[in-house]
Amino acid sequence: MEDTITPGVDSEVGPLRSVLLHRPGNELKRLTPRNNDQLLFDSIPWVDRAQQEHDAFAGVLKGRDVEVLLLADLLCESLRDARAHAAGVHAAVDDRRLGTELADSLRSHLSGLDAPVLGEVLMSGMTFEELPASEGASLVRKMHHPHDFAVDPLPNLLFTRDSSAWIGDRVAVSSLAMPARRRETALLDLIYAYHPRFQGTARAYGAHSAPVEGGDVLLLAPGVLAVGVGERTTAAGAESLARSVFADGLAHTVLAVPIVQTRATMHLDTVCTMVGPDSVVMYPLARDSLVAYTLRPGDNDTLRVDGPAPFLSAAAEAMGIDRLHVIDTGLDPVTAEREQWDDGNNTLALAPGVVVGYERNMETNARLEEAGIEVLRIAGSELGSGRGGPRCMSCPIARDPISPATH
Ligand SMILES: NC(=[NH2+])NCCC[C@H](N)C(=O)O
């Protein structure tokens, strides 16, 4: 086997070596004005342009020597394993929606598909009209509109940040909160279980535990996690993630950070991302209001919960630094609000002080540059229609540790 980069991530900003992206595909073509809200998109993206924007994003990463893995490739390679193929079929067919007759015939159809064809169905779903012609006419089939989904498409696969997250040398496959994204768990689960590249990878957390999404998890420093609790990750999710990372020795402190439960702030990384070992870009309203509960291992398997205290001071204390420096999204509140909505806060660090950001967030980018941060700008007018920026669209698989010299 060729040399592969050893997975492992212990910070938000250590030099990025390998990352998982998803080039948007046919699943985006399923979005219509009737289903876009439910499928968590704010408008109907122009798919070709979204692909060009994504190729350019991947190009920026490759240009900085980052290995880019594409989810569709990993999925199809995994599905060549018969066990993965069976798991994929199992996850695609929902008996409650289809009824036994149709579910059985769909299962047997999918079981006979080659890996790439099954992979395509798993990502972009299947309408009733696309179901193979089957003998016994099912009532379900007759009564559904031909354009209804027999297998739901997964347009949010684009946001690889949320469906899995590496913590140290382990991967946590997320338990996603929204119905439109739940099946992503099964795909990531089978990739990490069966792709040759990830053989032997240990898991953190359990894919079927209380909801935790990767967009809510920030690796503030080795051993220190912040977990947003809001529309997606629940308090129960944060608590059980904390238990699990303490038990595995992956962290000594977890900060549970309540975030406003609105679409604009669905994850912690929509209001705050790290741009250096001790600096963040942050939405001003969040800077002034975010608090954190500090969780640490207690005696006899218990959790110690302290706080709430202001987030910035709780974070600095847990990280063992004097101060967490904040770069604001914008001085003027209206610009700040607009740029927060357009993922101005959602930067992806390629190294300490080097981040990728959407070009449209001109004020935030200018402020980052004033603070000495290099901003690699990408276009995102179409990619952003699902409300996600460079951090949401990337799942780091390997980062080098931050060297002491960069502190
Ligand atoms: N890490 C993030 N902020 N991800 C953004 C995900 C956006 C996606 N449409 C959703 O609503 O789930």
Automatic annotation (TrEMBL):
Record keywords: Arginine metabolism, Cytoplasm, Hydrolase
Active site, renumbered: C392
Signal peptide start and end residues: none
Stored Pfam families: ADI (PF02274)
Localization (cell): Cytoplasm
NCBIfam families, per database record: PRK01388.1 (NF002381)
Record's keyword annotation contains Phosphoprotein: no
Catalysed reaction, written as an equation: L-arginine + H2O = L-citrulline + NH4(+)
Name of the top EC class for this enzyme: hydrolase
Cited InterPro entries: Arg_deiminase
Entry EC number(s): 3.5.3.6
Chief localization: cytoplasm
Name the UniProt record assigns to this protein: Arginine deiminase
Similarity section: Belongs to the arginine deiminase family.
Any one Gene Ontology molecular-function term assigned to this protein's record: arginine deiminase activity
Pathway noted in the entry: Amino-acid degradation; L-arginine degradation via ADI pathway; carbamoyl phosphate from L-arginine: step 1/2
